[in-house]
Amino acid sequence: MSKRRAGSGDVWALILAGGASRRMGEPKLLLPAPRGNLLQQTMHQVLAAGNVQMAVITAEGGPLRQEDTESVPVEWLTTSQANRGLGASLAAGVRQLEARYAPAAIQIILGDQPEISPDAIRQVTEVFIQTGAEIVQARYDDRPAHPVLFAAPLFPELTKLDGDVGAKELLQQYREQIVEVKISRNAPRDIDTPEEYARYRESAFSKI
């Protein structure tokens, strides 16, 4: 793969927020969190990184509305394909950002990971700027996980994604070229079930 350098203003964080919350039984990203709701909490973590632009993609006509973000500065994207799964939402988000802004790179963030570290987002961006690598991924103490950054030359492959597998196959295809960023903590947790949310809520609100 070729190398490409970019200024930090050209790097976008795309928050995937189009899921149906089937295991939760209600729109999980609207559940309370210290910064408002889970979606706002994740957004504030991204903003705290300080070196990315931010977009969120949600289901067209879905339970999430732009007003749910209150005054958080974000590019609001929607897709009619969210019911097809994570990969379809990711593809739609990349397609729209590429058409509107021609980013040099896009970091993929999951909306249901409100504990994602701003430092991880910041470092992944910095390593991309320093190296021009086409894939940069956070490597935590327990495993590699989000955020994962893809540079513009891979956008055509990202826009072909469908279903619910996300970019795992693409990461496997290019595994030898991935530049990893070591983050000294465990990977952020997904919040999919009432039990997982209860544990998050107890932990998050106890720190206030």
User: What is the molecular shape?
Assistant: globular
What's the arrangement of strands in the largest beta sheet?
5-4-1-6-8-7-9
Secondary structure: helix percent: 25-40%
How many helices in DSSP terms?
6
Q: How many angstroms does the end-to-end distance come to?
A: 45 Å
Mean pLDDT: 92
Determine the strand fraction and express it as a percent band.
Answer: 15-25%
Rg measurement, Å:
16 Å
Query: Stretches where pLDDT falls below 50 for ≥5 residues?
Result: 1-9
**Which structural class is indicated by helix and strand composition?**
alpha/beta
Question: How is this structure best summarized?
Answer:
This protein has 208 residues and is α/β, with parallel strands linked by helices. It has helices spanning 38-49, 86-101, 118-131, 155-158, 168-173, 194-206, and strands spanning 11-17, 32-33, 36-37, 53-59, 75-79, 105-110, 135-139, 144-151, 179-182.
